[in-house]
Protein backbone atom coordinates (compact mmCIF):
# COMPACT_ATOMS: atom_id res chain seq x y z
CA UNK A 1 0.00 0.00 0.00
CA UNK A 2 1.20 3.51 -0.82
CA UNK A 3 2.43 5.46 2.20
CA UNK A 4 0.01 8.36 1.62
CA UNK A 5 -2.96 5.98 1.41
CA UNK A 6 -1.87 4.28 4.66
CA UNK A 7 -1.50 7.69 6.29
CA UNK A 8 -5.01 8.72 5.16
CA UNK A 9 -6.43 5.57 6.77
CA UNK A 10 -4.47 6.28 9.95
CA UNK A 11 -5.72 9.86 10.18
CA UNK A 12 -9.27 8.65 9.58
CA UNK A 13 -8.79 6.16 12.41
CA UNK A 14 -7.58 8.94 14.72
CA UNK A 15 -10.62 11.08 13.92
CA UNK A 16 -13.29 8.37 14.10
CA UNK A 17 -11.90 5.98 16.71
CA UNK A 18 -9.81 8.20 18.95
CA UNK A 19 -11.53 11.54 18.49
CA UNK A 20 -8.31 13.49 17.90
CA UNK A 21 -8.74 17.19 17.16
CA UNK A 22 -8.30 18.67 13.64
CA UNK A 23 -5.30 20.68 14.89
CA UNK A 24 -3.58 17.47 16.09
CA UNK A 25 -4.24 15.77 12.74
CA UNK A 26 -2.79 18.78 10.93
CA UNK A 27 0.37 18.59 13.06
CA UNK A 28 0.73 14.88 12.22
CA UNK A 29 0.30 15.62 8.50
CA UNK A 30 3.08 18.22 8.73
CA UNK A 31 5.35 15.72 10.51
CA UNK A 32 4.78 13.15 7.75
CA UNK A 33 5.27 15.76 5.01
CA UNK A 34 8.61 16.84 6.56
CA UNK A 35 9.71 13.18 6.62
CA UNK A 36 8.65 12.60 2.98
CA UNK A 37 10.67 15.64 1.86
CA UNK A 38 13.81 14.08 3.33
CA UNK A 39 13.00 10.51 2.22
CA UNK A 40 11.32 10.78 -1.19
CA UNK A 41 12.48 7.24 -1.96
CA UNK A 42 10.00 5.84 0.60
CA UNK A 43 6.65 5.60 -1.15
CA UNK A 44 5.22 2.35 0.23
CA UNK A 45 3.99 1.73 3.78
CA UNK A 46 6.03 -1.49 3.88
CA UNK A 47 9.23 0.54 3.41
CA UNK A 48 8.66 2.57 6.57
CA UNK A 49 10.90 0.55 8.88
CA UNK A 50 12.11 1.07 12.43
CA UNK A 51 15.66 1.66 11.17
CA UNK A 52 14.51 4.37 8.76
CA UNK A 53 12.60 6.20 11.52
CA UNK A 54 15.53 5.90 13.95
CA UNK A 55 17.90 7.31 11.34
CA UNK A 56 15.56 10.19 10.54
CA UNK A 57 15.10 11.18 14.20
CA UNK A 58 18.84 10.87 14.85
CA UNK A 59 19.56 13.23 11.95
CA UNK A 60 17.16 15.80 13.45
CA UNK A 61 18.99 15.51 16.77
CA UNK A 62 22.36 16.06 15.07
CA UNK A 63 20.99 19.18 13.39
CA UNK A 64 19.92 20.46 16.82
CA UNK A 65 16.18 20.48 16.22
CA UNK A 66 14.24 21.42 19.36
CA UNK A 67 13.81 18.38 21.64
CA UNK A 68 10.07 19.14 21.89
CA UNK A 69 9.78 18.92 18.08
CA UNK A 70 11.70 15.62 17.93
CA UNK A 71 9.63 14.14 20.74
CA UNK A 72 6.40 15.05 18.97
CA UNK A 73 7.61 13.40 15.75
CA UNK A 74 8.72 10.34 17.72
CA UNK A 75 5.26 10.07 19.26
CA UNK A 76 3.64 10.32 15.83
CA UNK A 77 5.85 7.69 14.18
CA UNK A 78 5.63 5.33 17.16
CA UNK A 79 1.81 5.29 16.94
CA UNK A 80 1.75 5.31 13.13
CA UNK A 81 4.09 2.30 12.88
CA UNK A 82 2.04 0.43 15.49
CA UNK A 83 -1.08 1.08 13.39
CA UNK A 84 0.70 -0.22 10.27
CA UNK A 85 1.82 -3.37 12.11
CA UNK A 86 -1.73 -4.04 13.33
CA UNK A 87 -3.08 -3.52 9.80
CA UNK A 88 -0.42 -5.80 8.33
CA UNK A 89 1.50 -3.14 6.39
CA UNK A 90 4.69 -3.06 8.49
CA UNK A 91 6.83 -5.72 10.10
CA UNK A 92 7.74 -4.09 13.40
CA UNK A 93 6.94 -1.12 15.62
CA UNK A 94 9.33 1.17 17.48
CA UNK A 95 10.40 -0.58 20.69
CA UNK A 96 9.46 1.10 24.00
CA UNK A 97 13.18 1.25 24.83
CA UNK A 98 13.74 3.70 21.98
CA UNK A 99 13.47 7.12 23.58
CA UNK A 100 13.93 10.58 22.20
CA UNK A 101 15.95 13.45 23.67
CA UNK A 102 15.13 14.94 27.03
CA UNK A 103 13.28 18.22 26.87
CA UNK A 104 15.51 21.18 27.62
CA UNK A 105 14.69 22.99 30.80
CA UNK A 106 13.05 26.26 29.97
CA UNK A 107 14.85 28.78 32.14
CA UNK A 108 12.63 31.40 33.74
CA UNK A 109 12.75 34.98 32.51
CA UNK A 110 14.60 37.18 35.01
CA UNK A 111 15.06 40.94 35.29
CA UNK A 112 18.28 42.60 36.37
CA UNK A 113 18.21 44.59 39.61
CA UNK A 114 18.33 47.83 37.62
CA UNK A 115 15.36 46.71 35.49
CA UNK A 116 13.41 45.82 38.64
CA UNK A 117 14.20 49.24 40.07
CA UNK A 118 12.90 51.03 36.98
CA UNK A 119 9.79 48.81 36.80
CA UNK A 120 8.91 49.45 40.45
CA UNK A 121 9.22 53.21 39.93
CA UNK A 122 6.58 53.33 37.18
CA UNK A 123 3.31 53.57 39.19
CA UNK A 124 2.16 57.12 40.01
CA UNK A 125 1.92 57.07 43.80
CA UNK A 126 -0.14 60.28 43.77
CA UNK A 127 -3.12 58.29 42.45
CA UNK A 128 -5.10 55.52 44.16
CA UNK A 129 -4.27 53.03 41.44
CA UNK A 130 -0.59 53.94 41.43
CA UNK A 131 -0.21 53.78 45.22
CA UNK A 132 -1.87 50.37 45.34
CA UNK A 133 0.08 48.99 42.36
CA UNK A 134 3.32 50.30 43.81
CA UNK A 135 2.60 48.50 47.10
CA UNK A 136 1.73 45.31 45.22
CA UNK A 137 4.88 45.39 43.08
CA UNK A 138 7.12 46.09 46.05
CA UNK A 139 5.47 43.34 48.09
CA UNK A 140 5.81 40.83 45.28
CA UNK A 141 9.48 41.55 44.66
CA UNK A 142 10.25 41.61 48.39
CA UNK A 143 8.58 38.27 49.09
CA UNK A 144 8.49 36.25 45.86
CA UNK A 145 4.76 35.57 46.21
CA UNK A 146 2.75 33.91 43.48
CA UNK A 147 0.26 36.34 41.92
CA UNK A 148 -2.66 34.32 43.33
CA UNK A 149 -1.12 34.60 46.81
CA UNK A 150 -0.61 38.34 46.40
CA UNK A 151 -4.17 39.06 45.26
CA UNK A 152 -5.71 36.93 48.03
CA UNK A 153 -3.74 38.57 50.85
CA UNK A 154 -5.84 39.81 53.75
CA UNK A 155 -5.04 42.52 56.26
CA UNK A 156 -4.74 39.93 59.01
CA UNK A 157 -1.90 38.28 57.04
CA UNK A 158 0.18 41.38 57.59
CA UNK A 159 2.29 42.04 60.71
CA UNK A 160 3.89 45.40 60.05
CA UNK A 161 5.33 45.68 63.56
CA UNK A 162 7.51 42.63 62.85
CA UNK A 163 7.74 43.20 59.07
CA UNK A 164 6.32 39.74 58.39
CA UNK A 165 3.73 38.38 56.01
CA UNK A 166 1.81 35.15 56.55
CA UNK A 167 1.01 33.50 53.23
CA UNK A 168 -1.44 30.73 52.42
CA UNK A 169 0.03 28.95 49.40
CA UNK A 170 -0.67 25.84 47.33
CA UNK A 171 -2.41 23.05 49.18
CA UNK A 172 -3.42 25.55 51.89
CA UNK A 173 0.13 25.40 53.25
CA UNK A 174 1.14 28.41 55.29
CA UNK A 175 4.54 30.07 55.34
CA UNK A 176 5.88 33.28 56.82
CA UNK A 177 8.05 35.60 54.75
CA UNK A 178 9.87 38.78 55.77
CA UNK A 179 9.11 42.17 54.25
CA UNK A 180 11.79 44.58 53.14
CA UNK A 181 11.79 48.02 54.78
CA UNK A 182 10.78 49.64 51.52
CA UNK A 183 7.87 47.25 50.91
CA UNK A 184 6.72 47.84 54.49
CA UNK A 185 6.74 51.62 53.97
CA UNK A 186 4.80 51.34 50.71
CA UNK A 187 2.19 49.13 52.39
CA UNK A 188 1.85 51.52 55.32
CA UNK A 189 1.42 54.46 52.96
CA UNK A 190 -1.27 52.63 50.97
CA UNK A 191 -3.11 51.35 54.05
CA UNK A 192 -3.19 54.72 55.79
CA UNK A 193 -3.86 56.63 52.61
CA UNK A 194 -6.03 55.61 49.66
CA UNK A 195 -7.13 52.27 51.04
CA UNK A 196 -8.52 53.88 54.19
CA UNK A 197 -10.97 55.81 51.99
CA UNK A 198 -11.87 52.94 49.64
CA UNK A 199 -15.44 51.57 49.54
CA UNK A 200 -14.16 48.27 50.84
CA UNK A 201 -11.99 49.76 53.59
CA UNK A 202 -13.65 47.55 56.22
CA UNK A 203 -13.31 44.43 54.12
CA UNK A 204 -10.68 41.77 54.76
CA UNK A 205 -8.66 41.94 51.54
CA UNK A 206 -5.47 43.96 51.43
CA UNK A 207 -5.41 45.20 47.84
CA UNK A 208 -8.70 46.66 46.58
CA UNK A 209 -10.01 47.98 43.28
CA UNK A 210 -12.23 51.08 43.08
CA UNK A 211 -15.34 49.01 43.73
CA UNK A 212 -13.90 47.80 47.02
CA UNK A 213 -13.31 44.27 45.72
CA UNK A 214 -9.98 42.42 45.76
CA UNK A 215 -7.72 43.16 42.79
CA UNK A 216 -7.92 40.35 40.20
CA UNK A 217 -4.96 38.37 38.92
CA UNK A 218 -5.87 39.34 35.36
CA UNK A 219 -5.78 43.05 36.20
CA UNK A 220 -2.38 42.75 37.86
CA UNK A 221 -0.97 40.73 34.95
CA UNK A 222 -1.99 43.48 32.50
CA UNK A 223 -0.75 46.22 34.85
CA UNK A 224 2.71 44.65 35.13
CA UNK A 225 2.94 44.41 31.34
CA UNK A 226 1.88 48.06 31.06
CA UNK A 227 4.52 49.23 33.56
CA UNK A 228 7.20 47.12 31.89
CA UNK A 229 6.40 48.72 28.51
CA UNK A 230 6.54 52.18 30.11
CA UNK A 231 9.90 51.29 31.63
CA UNK A 232 11.23 50.32 28.20
CA UNK A 233 12.00 46.75 29.29
CA UNK A 234 12.39 44.68 26.14
CA UNK A 235 11.46 41.33 27.70
CA UNK A 236 8.31 39.34 28.28
CA UNK A 237 7.37 40.51 31.76
CA UNK A 238 4.59 39.14 33.95
CA UNK A 239 3.96 39.04 37.71
CA UNK A 240 5.76 35.69 37.79
CA UNK A 241 8.87 37.43 36.39
CA UNK A 242 9.14 39.28 39.70
CA UNK A 243 8.96 35.98 41.59
CA UNK A 244 11.71 34.56 39.37
CA UNK A 245 13.80 37.70 39.84
CA UNK A 246 13.34 37.60 43.62
CA UNK A 247 14.67 34.02 43.81
CA UNK A 248 17.56 34.60 41.42
CA UNK A 249 18.71 37.80 43.12
CA UNK A 250 18.61 36.09 46.51
CA UNK A 251 20.91 33.31 45.28
CA UNK A 252 23.24 35.79 43.60
CA UNK A 253 23.57 37.56 46.91
CA UNK A 254 24.52 34.45 48.84
CA UNK A 255 21.22 32.98 50.07
CA UNK A 256 21.22 29.19 50.43
CA UNK A 257 18.91 27.04 48.34
CA UNK A 258 16.87 25.67 51.26
CA UNK A 259 16.04 29.18 52.46
CA UNK A 260 14.91 30.22 49.00
CA UNK A 261 12.81 27.05 48.77
CA UNK A 262 11.07 27.93 52.06
CA UNK A 263 10.42 31.53 50.99
CA UNK A 264 8.96 30.49 47.63
CA UNK A 265 6.83 27.75 49.18
CA UNK A 266 8.21 25.00 46.94
CA UNK A 267 7.45 21.50 48.19
CA UNK A 268 10.45 20.04 46.34
CA UNK A 269 14.01 21.39 46.31
CA UNK A 270 14.29 20.33 42.65
CA UNK A 271 11.81 23.05 41.69
CA UNK A 272 14.02 25.67 43.32
CA UNK A 273 17.24 24.35 41.75
CA UNK A 274 16.34 25.87 38.37
CA UNK A 275 17.27 29.27 39.83
CA UNK A 276 20.83 28.14 40.52
CA UNK A 277 21.21 27.55 36.79
CA UNK A 278 19.76 30.96 35.96
CA UNK A 279 22.04 32.60 38.50
CA UNK A 280 25.15 30.79 37.23
CA UNK A 281 24.39 31.73 33.62
CA UNK A 282 23.89 35.39 34.56
CA UNK A 283 27.19 35.47 36.45
CA UNK A 284 29.06 33.78 33.58
CA UNK A 285 27.42 36.13 31.08
CA UNK A 286 28.45 39.18 33.11
CA UNK A 287 32.01 37.83 33.38
CA UNK A 288 32.22 37.22 29.62
CA UNK A 289 30.99 40.76 28.96
CA UNK A 290 33.55 42.14 31.41
CA UNK A 291 36.38 40.23 29.70
CA UNK A 292 35.37 41.50 26.28
CA UNK A 293 35.39 45.11 27.47
CA UNK A 294 38.75 44.97 29.28
Which descriptors apply to this entry?
294 residues, hpI Integrase, Chain A, mainly alpha, 57% helix, DNA polymerase, domain 1, three-stranded antiparallel beta sheet
Q: How would you classify the helix and strand content by structural class?
A: mainly alpha
- What composes the largest sheet? 3 strands, antiparallel
Shape descriptor:
elongated
Gross CATH architecture of the largest domain: Orthogonal Bundle
Query: CATH class of the largest domain, anyone?
Result: Mainly Alpha
Describe this structure in words.
This protein is mostly helical and 294 residues long. It folds into 2 domains: 3-87, DNA polymerase, domain 1; 113-293, Intergrase catalytic core (hpI Integrase, Chain A). Helix content is 57%, strand content 4%. The protein has helices spanning 3-18, 22-38, 50-62, 67-87, 113-120, 128-143, 147-151, 181-192, 217-230, 239-252, 257-264, 269-293, and strands at 158-159, 164-168, 174-178. The chain has a 3-stranded antiparallel β-sheet, with no helix packed on it. Helix 3 runs antiparallel to helix 4 (67-87), helix 6 packs across helix 10 (239-252) and helix 10 crosses helix 12 (269-293). The longest helix is centred in the last third of the chain and has 25 residues, at 269-293.
Amino acid sequence: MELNEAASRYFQYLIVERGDSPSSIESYREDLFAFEKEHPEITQAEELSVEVIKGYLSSLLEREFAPSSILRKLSFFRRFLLFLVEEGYAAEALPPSFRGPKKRKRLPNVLSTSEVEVLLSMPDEATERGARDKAMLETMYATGLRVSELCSLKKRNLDLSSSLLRVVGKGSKERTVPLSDYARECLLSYLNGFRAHNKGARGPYLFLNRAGKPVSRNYFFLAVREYAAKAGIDKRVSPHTLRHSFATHLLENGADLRSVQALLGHSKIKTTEIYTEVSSRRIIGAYDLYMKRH
